[in-house]
Amino acid sequence: MFDTGSTGFMLVASSLVMLMTPGLAFFYGGLVGRKNVLGIMIQSFVSLVWTTVLWFAFGYSLCFSGGEGGIIGNLNMAFLSGTTLNSIFTGNNQIPLYVFVAYQMMFAIITPALITGAFTNRVRFPAYFLFLTFWLVLVYFPLVHMIWGGGLLAQWGVLDFAGGIVVHASAGMAALASVFYVGKRNVAERGPHSIPLVALGTGLLWFGWYGFNAGSELKVDTITVTAFINTDVAASFAGVTWLFLAWILEKKPKFIGLLTGSVAGLATITPAAGFITVGNAAIIGIVAGIVCYFAVALKNKLKWDDALDVWGVHGVGGTIGIIMLGLFATRAVNPMVQVDGLFIGGSAEFFLKQLISVVAVGVYCFLFTYIMLKVINYITPVKVTQAEEEAGLDSSLHGEIAYEQD
Predict the structure, then answer these.
(1) What is the pLDDT, as a whole number, of residue 190?
(2) Which candidate, 5, 124, 258, 339, has a CA 20 to 30 Å from the CA of 180?
(3) Alpha helices, DSSP H only, in 57-140?
C-alpha cells in the first residue's frame, strides 16, 4: 500500500524539479545578448522533451535495471516494461514506481541543459541535439547507475545525496571541455541583456531546488526536513558571501553576483544536503561563495570563454560539495552514512573515496566530452559560422527573434 503523504510530496517535488529547467532557460536567457535569447532557451526546452523520450525508451532501464556493482544497467525495463500503476518503488516501499521514474527523469532533463551556458552563441543546433543524446547515454546514464542505481561507486561506498557528482561536477567539467573545443566567441556581447530575467530564473531555480534536494530522500521524514533547510541556508550564506566579496573587491554590491553566489551555494550543498547538520550547511555556503567566486575570477584571468560560468559555479561547486561531504557527513543526521566525515571523527578512508570519485568522474567527463565533440564535428559542423554569430543565433539558426530590433 502506498504512503499517500510521501506520494503526494514526491509528485510536488517532481514538479518542482521540472520547473528548474524553464527556470534555467530564463536564467541563461537573461545573461546573453538580445540576439541570442531564443538560441540558448531552446536548448533547455529541447532537453525537456527529448530527454523524456530517451528516458522512457531506455534511459530509466539503463540507470535502474540490473547491473549491480557495474557501470551500466540493462534493457529489461525499456519502455517501462512490466511497470503498472500498482508497481511500488522497492527502495522504500512507500511511493509508486512511476513517481520515482518521473522524479529521476527531471534530473536527467536539467543536467545536460546546465552545460549549454558554457558554449552559448557558438554551437549549431544539429550538433547540440547529437551532443545532448550522446552525453546522456554515455555519461549521465552510467553515472546515475554507478551512484544511485546500485552500481560500482555505490558499492564502493560513495555518497551523493542529490547530484554533486551525477549532476553538477559532471556538467561543469563537460562545460569546460566544450569551451576548450569550440573556442572563444567572435562577437563580444555587452553583458546580460536582462538582469530581471536572470533574477526570475534564479528564483525559479531556488524554488525548484527544494524539490531537487528535499525530494531526494524519496519520502517525508526528518531527513527531508534537514535537506530542505540546509538548501536554503547554504544558498543564502553563499549569496551573501559572494555579494560582500564583490562589494569589497569590485567596489559595488552587484545583483548578478548575489544571484550567481546563491546558485553556487545551491549547487554545492546538493550532494551533502541530507547528510549534514544545518550549522555545517552554513559553512558549506560560505566556502561555496568564496571558492566559486575566485574560480570565476580565475576563469576570467585565463580568458576561458565559459560564457555563463558553468564550470566555476556548477563544476567547482559540485566538486567541493562532494569533498566537504567527506568532511561533514554524520550518522546522527542520516543512518545511510556508514562512516562519519573526517571532521566528525571518521577515518580518512571515506573522505578519500569522495575525493577520488569526484576527480575521476571529472576527468572522464572532460575527456569524453572533448572527444565526443570532435566526433560530432565529423557528422555535422559543431561551430556556427562567423556570419551566423554576427547575425545572432535566434534569427540565423531558428528564424525567430525574441525582441524587435531597434
Answers:
(1) 81
(2) 258
(3) 60-64, 97-115, 125-135
